[in-house]
Design brief:
Distance between the termini of chain A: 10 Å
Strand content of chain A: under 5%
Strand content of chain B: 15-25%
Number of strands of chain B: 12
Largest sheet of chain A: 2 strands, antiparallel
CATH class of the largest domain in chain B: Alpha Beta
Strand order of the largest sheet of chain B: 2-1-3-4-5-11
Order of helices and strands of chain A: HHHHHHEHHEEHHHHEHHH
Structural class of chain B: alpha/beta
Largest interface: A-B, 32 and 38 residues
CATH architecture of the largest domain in chain B: 3-Layer(aba) Sandwich
Radius of gyration of chain A: 20 Å
Oligomer: heterodimer
Order of helices and strands of chain B: HEHEHEHEEHEHEHEHEHEHEE
Helix content of chain A: over 70%
Helix content of chain B: 40-55%
Shape of chain A: globular
Radius of gyration of chain B: 22 Å
Chain lengths: 321, 323
């Protein structure tokens, strides 16, 4: 199968092409500041998309991720604000909030998973429902306005988004670490192989003694934890959460996953593809902001065309599997 | 709750069929009890959150002051939901007056017109209906004026010349009017707009777009963010780039966080331009006056967009409001 390598490279080729366009469009594109901005910015959608790769590979879908991110942001901010008077160390407060974040993410994933597998409700409906629930909960918690993080804690916590290690912001390192762990999990473990099997054909997987329900539920929990990690690095950026936080993240994450070569109907997934997909979506937005040669009104059209072309470049590769 | 209302409205429909004609005749001031229905968009973003807050405050104040008056506030998430709300207000609550901030102008013109035909006093807020002659009172902000005031300030503060960037809202009439008013006010001056991009009236997009502007333009003297949510994102991006001392930011609307900064004399946000969600209170008070004192209130009320400066910020600061 000599063509497969070429197809696997598809998303990377598309990424390079867009990168080339960026260089042509603006001198500012290659500045260190701009490149680190792009990487840090893609880390939210990228980490969510890595979680979505598991869910989609195993034949599911999760529409609730954007709302869940908003809800977790809200919970973290309320928790930290309420602990200001009882705990002296801001670092301890931030760590507690991070722990709570992962906990809420995992439980939310478990709920999605159990409702799909045990209650046998279509994942689309389950997650559409939880999407509405989390979105209105955060609006309710904020009284329709915006929740803002206590100033003192925000000062300490902001380091998580703005500080750098070896020249790269922390979010980029987190993104990289999540990607490496996810790659190992999906491609080198039994669980990963089970995800592929369940997504390809649930019945065959069941006859092969795979605990289908457990595998599917686990993918939703992973997705929830990924959303929690993305939220942990998102909150320190602006220190606020509102009903508008994380709007459309679910679509961007699913788009990143599919651009990267994962199959929407399940059975085949690529972690690096999702990473490249997320970078590509961020790059397009960045380039459009760096030029005024495209009318503002046409930004959406340009994005649409590039996404379709990118997917065209690696079309059909999954049929070979 | 909504289904409960629906069931109730079905149950009442029979009575009302007979009663509607009578009520229309009996409405004049002989009736002590009056009901005002208030229909507004749900609190899904900051400005609408402020709108809901001020509506609730005004309801409490008016009902306490005038025992005969009852006010019913309903919130809708979409234009069609709002049309349903109007039917419920008429059928279930038997309203004498309607205060409405239409979700969208065109789709709600028909439903409001139907309410009007039942003899209900109509007050329209902020977004006008597509047909003239339906509303008795019209209360609105002035988007063109808001853009103009922002432009005048930037022009004056920069001494008539400088490089600025503009972050816009969502492509809508509101955004267009503000932008046109702004551009008209700086036309012919030495103010050069380096670029304008949509930031969708939200903080994250304000942050992202401003980061890119900062990467692209080494010299920016001022930012017109048009909206306070966008401005919050812009402030963070400017801080990250360490360029707080090179520029200033003009937001808009009157969010408490920004008004507080203006009040404290923050150099980065020296002023704000008001586009008050409290305009719903103006509309409700005017409508109530019609019934309480039978004063002539019919007409159009266009609120100004004053410049909020350090000197007058205190009177625009509502620490309890969510916005």
């Amino acid at each position: 199968m000599p063509t497969i390598d070429l197809k696997t490279a598809g998303p990377f080729v598309a990424l390079l092409l867009i990168f080339g366009i960026g260089i042509l469009v603006s001198d500012a594109f290659l500045s260190a500041g701009n490149l680190t901005n792009i990487l840090a910015r893609s880390s939210f959608i990228g980490i969510v998309a890595i979680g979505a790769t598991f869910v989609i590979t195993a034949g599911g879908i999760d529409l609730s991720v954007g709302s869940l991110a908003a809800f977790i942001s809200g919970c973290m901010i309320l928790l930290m604000n309420s602990l200001v008077d009882t705990i002296d160390s801001p670092i301890a407060i931030v760590l507690l909030a991070m722990l709570a974040s992962v906990g809420i993410g995992a439980v939310a994933g478990l709920v999605n998973g159990l409702l799909t597998t045990r209650a046998k409700i279509e994942a689309f409906i389950v997650t559409l429902g939880t999407m509405g629930i989390y979105r209105s909960l955060v609006t309710y918690m904020a009284d329709g306005g915006t929740l803002s993080l206590n100033f003192g804690i925000g000062d300490v916590y902001s380091a998580v988004y703005y500080n750098t290690l070896f020249g790269l912001p922390y979010p980029v390192w987190v993104f990289l670490a999540v990607a490496v762990i996810a790659y190992v999990l999906l491609n080198m473990t039994v669980f990963g192989r089970h995800c592929f099997a369940v997504g390809s054909n649930e019945n065959v997987a069941r006859y092969s003694a795979i605990n289908v329900d457990r595998v599917k539920t686990a993918t939703y929990i992973l997705q929830g934890v990924c959303v929690a990690i993305a939220t942990i690095i998102y909150v320190p950026r602006l220190g606020s959460a509102s009903g508008q936080t994380g709007i459309l993240w679910e679509l961007e994450a699913i788009a990143a996953v599919i651009i990267g070569g994962t199959v929407l109907k399940g059975g085949y997934g690529r972690i690096w593809g999702a990473v490249v997909g997320a970078l590509m979506l961020t790059l397009i937005g960045n380039i459009l902001n760096l030029t005024d040669s495209v009318s503002n009104y046409l930004n959406g059209a340009v994005q649409g065309i590039i996404v379709i072309v990118a997917v065209y470049l690696q079309r059909g590769s999954w049929r070979k599997h | 709750m909504r289904s409960l209302i629906k069931i109730l409205s079905l149950a009442c429909a029979g009575f009302l069929g007979m009663g509607a004609g009578l009520v229309a005749v009996m409405v004049p001031s002989t009736l002590v009890a009056q009901t005002i229905g208030v229909s507004i968009p749900a609190a899904t973003h900051g400005w609408a959150g402020g709108l809901n807050y001020h509506a609730e405050q005004t309801k409490a104040r008016l009902e306490a002051a005038h025992p005969g008056l009852s006010i019913v506030i309903v919130t809708a998430g979409s234009a069609s939901e709002q049309a349903n709300d109007l039917e419920d207000l008429v059928a279930v609550h038997n309203i004498d007056a309607l205060v409405i901030l239409p979700f969208e102008s065109a789709p709600l013109t028909g439903p409001v017109s139907n309410v009007k035909r039942g003899g209900v006093f109509i007050t329209v807020v902020d977004r006008g209906l597509s047909e003239p002659g339906i509303q008795d009172v019209y209360v609105a902000g002035n988007n063109t004026e808001m853009g103009r005031v922002s432009g005048e300030y930037i022009k004056e503060a920069l001494g008539g010349s400088g490089d600025i960037v503009v972050l816009r809202g969502i492509p809508t009439v509101v955004d267009e009017q503000r932008f046109d008013g702004f551009m008209a006010s700086i036309a012919g001056s030495g103010i050069n707009v380096l670029d304008n991009q949509y930031a969708n009236w939200n903080r994250d997009d304000g942050f992202t777009v401003m980061q890119d502007f900062l990467a692209r333009f080494p010299k920016i003297d001022a930012v017109w963010a048009q909206d306070d949510d966008i401005a919050i994102g812009v402030i963070q991006a400017v801080r990250q780039a360490g360029r707080e001392d090179d520029l200033f930011i003009v937001g808009g609307a009157g969010m408490k966080e920004i008004v507080k900064r203006v009040m404290d004399g923050d150099r980065l946000t020296p002023v704000d331009v008001l586009y008050p969600p409290a305009m719903i209170s103006t509309a409700m008070e005017l409508t109530a006056l019609k019934f309480i004192a039978n004063m002539p209130v019919e007409g159009e009320y266009i609120l100004g967009s004053p410049l909020i400066t350090r000197d007058n910020a205190e009177q625009y600061y509502f620490p309890e409001s969510p916005f």
